[in-house]
Amino acid sequence: MKSPRAQRVTLLSALVVAMSMLAGCGLVSSSGTFHEAHLPDGQEPLDGAKLVVTSKSFTEGVLLGKITATYLAAAGAEVKDLTGAPGSASSRQAQLNGDADILWEYTGTGWVNYHNETETIADPNELWQRVHEIEKRDNNLEWLPPANFNDTYAFGASTPNAERLHVKSLSDVATLPVPDRTFCVDDEFFSRSDGFIPMLQKYGIPYNDPNGVPSGNVTRMDAGVVYTATAKAAPCNFGMVYTTDGRVKNLNLVVLEDDKKFFLPYSGTAVVRGAIIDRYPELRKLIGTISEHLTDELMQELNGRVDIDGEDPADVAYDWLKKEKLVA
Questions:
Q1: Spacing of C-alpha 164 from chain mean position
Q2: Which residues contact 313 (CB under 8 A, 6 or more apart)?
Q3: How far apart are CA 225 and CA 119, in angstroms?
Q4: What 3 state SS string does 174-236 have?
Q5: Tell me: the pLDDT tens digits for 208-253?
C-alpha cells in the first residue's frame, strides 16, 4: 500500500536537469544544488560536520530536502545534496544502508508502508511516538518531533459551494440531501482499504445505497482533474484532495474537517540516522527550528510555487528561509 504522496504526479520532472547516481543503492539526485547561506548570527554549530541529505522525488519531498540542506550548510555543515530519489524505496534504503543521513518522512508512511500496521491511530502525536519507538528499536533511526503539517487525504469543496451548502466537515456532508452528496475521486483512492468506501461507512452514508451515496453520485477520474472539477463544482460538490497540495490554495478550495478522524495522520517528520544524531546532537535543535515554521498552509504555498508557478525547488527553499530570517 502506498502513501498518499507516493501516488502524486507532479511537474518536478520538468525541473530535473542534472542527475547523478550514488553507486550501490540506485539513489539519484534531483540537481545536487542548493543556495549558499549562513546563519544570521554568524554561528556555525555544525562546523566540520559532513551530512548527506536525501528526499523522495515528489515536489514536497524535494522542497523539504532543499530547505534542510540549505539550512544545515548555513550552520556550517558540509552537505551533500541527494534530493529527488525516485520512489520511496530508494531514499529509504539509502538511509538504512548508511548512504544518506537525513530524510523527511511521513508518520503514516512509516506506520503502514514500512511496518505493515493496520491499526488506525487518529492522534498525530501518538502515531509519531509509536513510529518513533519502532524505528529506533528496529533501524536505529531517530524520527524527530513532527512539523505542524499533515499531508493526508481529505475532501475539498469550492468556497462558494461550501458556503452555499453550509458544510465545514464530513459530518456536515452526511446531513445533506442525497442529490447533493456528489464526489470526485481517483481510482486508487476509490479502491483502497483505507479509502473512499470505508470512509463513507464511517460517516454513515454507505456507498451504493439509495439513502447514502448512490453509485451514480460518484465520478472516478484522474487525480489531477479532481481539483479543477471540485473548483467548478461539476460534476461533483466534493473532491478528494491532498491537504498540502498547492492547488488547494490556488483554486481557493475549502478542506473539510475529518471530524470523525477516519484518515491516518501523515505528519511530516525529519528522520536522522542514529549514529549521526549521536555525533551531532545539535541537529535536534536546528531541524526543530525548521519544523516549527511548517504548516499546511505554508506547504500549500511552497508546493504551488513549484508545481503551478514553475519555480525551482532550490530557489523556493532559499527564498523562504530568507523570508523567515532563518538564513542571511
A1: 30
A2: 12, 15, 30, 59, 62, 63, 66, 83, 306
A3: 31
A4: HCCCHHHCCEEECHHHHHCCCCHHHHHHHCCCCECCCCCECHHHEEECCHHHHHHHHHHCCCC
A5: 999 999 999 999 999 889 999 999 999 999 999 999 999 999 999 9
Q: Are 54 and 100 in contact (CB under 8 A)?
A: yes
Closest alpha carbon to 120 in 213, 205, 199? 199
Q: How far apart are CA 213 and CA 205, in angstroms?
A: 6
CB-CB contact of 179 with 238 (8 Å):
no
For residues 183 and 155, is the Cβ–Cβ distance under 8 A? yes
- Torsion (CA) 73, 12, 10, 160 in degrees, nearest 10: 80
Q: Which helix (H) or strand (E) holds 68?
A: helix 59-74
Torsion angle in degrees (nearest 10) through CA of 44, 49, 55, 59: 20
CA distances 196 to 68, 96, 153, 302, Å, are 35, 33, 10, 28
Q: Which helix (H) or strand (E) holds 30?
A: none
- Residue 207 pairs in a beta bridge with 213
| Distance, CA of 281 to CA of 86 (rounded, Å) | 29
Q: In this structure, which amino acid lies at residue 117?
A: E
Per DSSP, the three-state class of 39 is coil
CA distance 102 to 246: 25
Question: What are phi and psi for residue 116, nearest 5 degrees?
Answer: 55, 35
pTM above 0.90, yes or no: no
Amino acid identity at 61? G
pLDDT tens column, 173-215 = 999 999 999 999 999 999 988 899 999 999 999 999 999 999 9
